[in-house]
Specification:
Three copies of one chain form a homotrimer. Chain A has 157 residues and is α+β, with helices and mostly antiparallel strands. Chain A contains two helices and nine strands; from the N terminus they run βαββββββαββ. A five-stranded mixed sheet of chain A has the order 2-5-9-1-4. In chain A, strands 3-7-6-8 form a four-stranded antiparallel sheet, with helices on one face. The longest helix of chain A is centred in the C-terminal third of the chain and has 18 residues, at 107-124. Chains in contact: A-B, A-C, B-C. The interface between B and C is medium-sized, with 33 and 31 residues.
Chain lengths: 157, 157, 157
């Protein structure tokens, strides 16, 4: 194995404004409490037996595996949302699946789409669903904004 | 060194249909046997002396370095393909280079493009070519589909 | 923690021409001395106390965390640039922030944009700025070209 497999995970989200798109993205990461880490984007599995935990600070500069969706816009007044969902199988020896979605629109709608995609992913695996967790955030653009939702994979040891 | 350097690699590909693009991407990953892992995308080197192996199951939820090409489409009837090629230098102390390509079109054409790009990459390094390996998959879209080809970097220890 | 946190970093840049976009990207990586590694893209923090070092060769095939900006073009004659900037806080116990930018245009302009974004990122954190480092490269396209600038995160141990 190249990397240690993550043993915990948490869901987080945030939004931000900035003078540029990257700065508004940075602001969203900061609000989500992951702005001072080095995010390594990954496709999108919660390892079996990974423990669900509350969002918590991570070491500054740490390399952090994360699945996320984000949307940025420079259109003042535009409403946009980002959401993530995790579908956990009833069988705890099997992996959970993360789905991410971001688009213009209300957070309820975007979150529902992420949940349906996560649900379909477990169906495709023939795994009965135990539980679905999700989180979403919406943001109305002032000047330049970003909305972001993430599942952070971690190992506290 | 931050990460362990991969010591084995394999080529794999797959295609899938789903109710959404992310779900069809997930289906393609599952067919390629890497759908239950956390893929970490990387640019595109086979380390010297990395051993070529057959595709094999990976631990669920593991973080897996991978170079891949993928294409998704929602146009029923459209034919699309994804391919990867590895050019290995004649000198085994030197790195091999991976090239990925995905596009509309037949798999023979897409695979040939990936092979030519990998060949050019070794030429650019002044390395005579020992061997080229490649793989490709084509998919005709039913509703929403994805085709994907990948080189997985791994370490069985 | 899943991964070791990087303890050193360096800035590098390069440009290249190739028969295809991926090959010109490969050429730019080679000129930047990171063409024979497996780049793992990360968002964009210099960990506290990370040591600034000169660009140096990395082990072939190693997995290397990197923040970068790149731009490719197939328009002969087009001038394009890529730049990265790191803003270091006056307080060495705090993280530095990397910003990347690539666009058509002169390298002085692109580098200035990256520097301003990095500066804004520290302001957003309420951190007085200690120093800003930056690097940029410009490239005039012959046939198919790429310009790339990167901050490489590493650990020599």
């Amino acid at each position: 194995m190249i990397f240690k497999t993550p043993t915990t995970h948490f869901l987080t989200c945030g939004s931000g404004e900035g003078g540029t798109r990257p700065n508004s993205f940075d602001g969203a990461l900061l609000q989500a409490q992951i702005g001072n880490t080095n995010l390594v984007r990954t496709s999108s599995i919660v390892p079996p037996k990974s423990r669900f935990v509350e969002p918590h600070p991570l070491p500054q500069g740490a390399l952090v595996p994360v699945a996320y969706a984000a949307i940025s816009s420079e259109m003042p007044g535009e409403l946009m949302s980002a959401g993530v969902a995790v579908a956990y199988p009833a069988d705890p020896s099997q992996a959970g699946v993360i789905m991410e979605y971001a688009s213009r629109g209300h957070k309820e709608d975007i979150e529902a789409i992420a949940r349906r995609m996560a649900e379909e992913a477990l169906k495709m695996r023939g795994q009965p669903i135990g539980q679905i967790r999700s989180i979403a955030v919406q943001h109305r653009v002032e000047n330049i904004g970003t909305a972001l939702a993430a599942v952070v994979l971690w190992d506290p040891a």
